[in-house]
Design a protein that fits this description.
By secondary structure, the protein is of the alpha+beta class. Helix content is 14%, strand content 22%. 57% of the residues are buried.
């Protein structure tokens, strides 16, 4: 989600020395409250650095580069040389070369690019808070909820939240992190390769384009090791259920056209769906079969007054958290309206910070069974609450488009 300064960002991390950073963009209800995305930074070269700023990230990825068939034509179309891309051309964030349109997503798989160091050290990037694009309290907004202290998910995470994981990606500011959820795919029942996250975790919004090297790690750090213990951890210990690269991603047109790294523009449409494939090639098992679970997505969840509780799950990375462990918050939701013309968002009390962006919100769906009903999008600088979009027709359109694209595969 988008986070708030000083400790929120879109839950992203810069590779290298650890520092405080904003995570996803968060929204503030009170004019004096500054918001930013809680999960990662803006990703706008004009907002904080030159086009090659991602040189801060390690080269990594000395392994094979694999390109799904449906991406090969797009690479040629955009003049991308595969070998140059593998050797670091992906770090070119020149605005003229940064692909941003919905149909332009490309994400060649560079094996072992996400080595233990890059997985562990990805951080949110520092970002100034800016509430200039907030429209104020319009529509239906309930009183601000009391903070709910995030509780650590017991390890092993796979036994307690098998569908949750960490999303890794590179932006102009470096290596970043969000959270994400394995969701059920009606076109491939029992064999889903779909992941749900926030739009700001895959695309920079109105001032940028698609992020790169997007990969999902289900049950990241499954044993719940400390940062010190992780210093010598192997890739298999960090990614027990593998590293799954996004071979297609889709977010809302509203996010692409309106979204920003700070403030609330586009937050009501801040969701995305990623189709993934295993880094090392398929053994025939889907992501759902590998982790043993997938949450259905409910696009007709009950109204706020009818919901007893919602649970948000993620990997908060901004202080006081370090991004290595999974946490959750559970609270009765309220309503947050950023703009009368946009759908009202869900809001819960929660102290999770940047890095938790994109993490799934679970509640009883329209059939009474647990379902994904939202994702972490924004929160205040004070990190006392989180807000997520309601999933309606626009979200269902994004989901169906990705599901249909890979139907029967």
């Amino acid at each position: 989600m988008r986070s708030i300064r000083p400790s929120f960002t879109m839950r992203g991390h810069r590779h290298g020395r650890r520092r405080t950073s904003p995570v996803p963009v968060t929204v503030a209800l009170v004019s004096a409250l500054a918001l930013t995305a809680t999960a990662c930074e803006s990703g706008d070269p004009e907002a904080g650095g030159d086009a090659s700023a991602s040189a801060a990230a390690s080269d990594g990825g000395n392994g094979e580069i694999r390109i799904p068939d449906h991406i090969k034509d797009k690479l040629k179309e955009h003049g991308i040389d595969v070998d140059e891309w593998k050797n670091g051309a992906w770090k070119n964030w020149n605005k003229d070369d940064w692909l941003r349109e919905a149909q332009d997503f490309v994400n060649p798989i560079i094996e072992d690019l996400w080595d233990p160091d890059r997985m562990r050290d990805a951080e949110e990037a520092d970002q100034p808070v800016d509430d200039s694009d907030l429209s104020g309290d319009q529509g239906v907004t309930d009183p601000e909820p009391a903070p709910v202290e995030a509780a650590a998910v017991p390890a092993k995470y796979h036994d307690n939240a098998a569908t949750a994981g960490k999303l890794l990606f590179d932006s102009p500011k470096g290596s970043m992190v969000c959270s994400a959820t394995v969701v059920a795919d009606p076109a491939n029942p029992g064999k889903s390769n779909l992941v749900w996250t926030a739009g700001h975790c895959v695309h920079a919004g109105k001032s940028g384009g698609w992020y790169r090297n997007i990969a999902f790690v289900p049950s990241y750090n499954d044993a719940g090791m400390s940062l010190e213990e992780l210093a010598n951890a192997t890739k298999e210990e960090l990614a027990t259920y593998g590293v799954w690269w996004g071979d297609w991603a889709q977010t809302s047109d509203q996010w692409i056209e309106q979204g920003g790294a700070t403030g609330g523009a586009g937050a009501s449409y801040d969701f995305a769906v990623i189709h993934v494939t295993p880094e090392k090639g398929s053994d025939g098992k889907s992501l759902e079969e590998t982790v043993g679970a997938a949450l259905p997505v409910d696009f007709d969840a009950p109204a706020v007054p009818e919901i007893e509780s919602m649970k948000a799950i993620g990997y908060p990375a901004a202080p006081p958290y370090d991004g290595q462990k999974m946490y959750q918050c559970e609270d009765k939701p309220g309503r947050l309206s950023l703009n009368a013309s946009d759908p009202t968002m869900y809001r819960i009390g929660c102290t999770m910070t940047g890095g938790s962006s994109g993490g799934g919100w679970v509640a009883a769906g329209s059939d009474g069974k647990p379902a994904l009903v939202s994702n972490t999008s924004i929160g205040p600088v004070t990190a006392g609450w989180l807000a997520g979009p309601r999933l309606g027709e626009e979200a269902k359109g994004v989901f169906d488009a990705v599901s249909d694209k890979f139907a029967g595969q």
